[in-house]
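Prompt: Have a read of the protein record below and flag anything odd:
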Amino acid sequence: MLWEALVSVLLGLALAWCAAQKLPTRLPSRQVVLATGPTGALFGAFLTRSAVGPDHGPLIILGAVVIGAVVLSLLLRPVRRIRRSPAL
């Protein structure tokens, strides 16, 4: 259980770091993103472990990564586009 938690936190941190590098203008501050990734992944590991049981290590890690990515996607802001006035 301890290694699952450690691996999920590290993968969540890596996922958050990649998101912060690729989408810096669409995400809030880097500190928020780097805190949200591991937290979401740890919650995902807990949720997946509760659903499938303790003997499914790779599935628990996969669930942690998926739920961590979903939690990070909730931080995304929409792309700002130039508003044009309608043609008269």
The chain has a mean pLDDT of 91. The radius of gyration is 17 Å.
